[in-house]
């Protein structure tokens, strides 16, 4: 029986993740207004979107694994402070490079926070990893729901700068909550730890990284292209925020159920079906005859995401030893944001040159191929007993 880290109420982690997600989602909702107010090109908007993902890649892949060796509370606190500073920079910046640097701070800060919290929760209850990860996804999705809608409405009423200052202030108000979280000591283990390179050589973990990374191409297109597509259709800034909300509400409602199913039947099966369904649905976003059809498609894609992405987190956790949870969840998260950032640029280019139909079909097809390849890698690793925790308990 493995030791468990000291218990921290899950609601604490959910609130912190909600605030981090609100900081991320709030930027996406006002990208068109930032473009128009500051005279930016669509290409610059794509770089701003990509910058956050690439900074989060560094935070999750290089810094978050330190949580396997250090106390987690200061890592979470520092990450949130950096995110607050990034939001202030978004409010005060007026040039492309200033906004890019601010987006880097938001992405890097939240990139450190999210996998550190996920690892702490995975270790706190190894028998219900997928279900608890689903509950964390609920916290994130609440942030993504409130963040875009509130930021967009505030931007319409008060201006973009005040909207970002409002979000930064809200996040700063809750920093004392993190200070009250008790230290979560890292387990001391008798055996020698795997190095990060050894962890990355695990075939099962590589498979999860390919699955999540491929699926995240759609996230890059979602943030960089969908707001521009809706703005060109005459949707207001507040309306764009509501469209983002339409996508994340089904994720929040389905992620806990998706986690429970993954704990029961195995995370690989649920992750594969959910992510393939979401990838296929993405191909239809650019060819829907009206914005209402787009909204309906986003609802279905949100349900697929709630099942598939939640199960992928449990799959990542199961692919490594208990003392390497932050490393595994960090590198999988890094794969997610790297591919999302890389996907934003070609998605915007395709949108500008070929239109939304071609952009979404190409991105969705790439997602489908990579998810399928990653699933096959995980399946082979399961057959080879790369990790006994990849299959559900009998």
Entry keywords:
mainly alpha, Growth Hormone, Chain: A, 394 residues, 16 helices, single chain
Distance between the termini: 17 Å
Rg, alpha carbons: 20 Å
Q: What name goes with the CATH superfamily? A: MFS general substrate transporter like domains
**What series of H and E elements makes up the topology?**
HHHHHHHHHHHHHHHH
Query: Shape, please?
Result: globular
Helix content: over 70%
Please provide a written account of the structure.
- The chain is mostly helical.
- It has one domain (10-180, 196-388): MFS general substrate transporter like domains (Growth Hormone, Chain: A, Up-down Bundle).
- Helix content is 80%, strand content 0%.
- The protein has helices at 10-29, 31-38, 42-63, 72-92, 96-124, 129-158, 160-173, 175-179, 196-200, 203-224, 226-232, 237-265, 267-282, 291-318, 325-354, 356-383.
- Mean pLDDT is 80; it is low at 1-6 and 186-192.
Brief synopsis:
The chain contains 16 helices and no strands.
Topology:
Elements: H1 10-29, H2 31-38, H3 42-63, H4 72-92, H5 96-124, H6 129-158, H7 160-173, H8 175-179, H9 196-200, H10 203-224, H11 226-232, H12 237-265, H13 267-282, H14 291-318, H15 325-354, H16 356-383
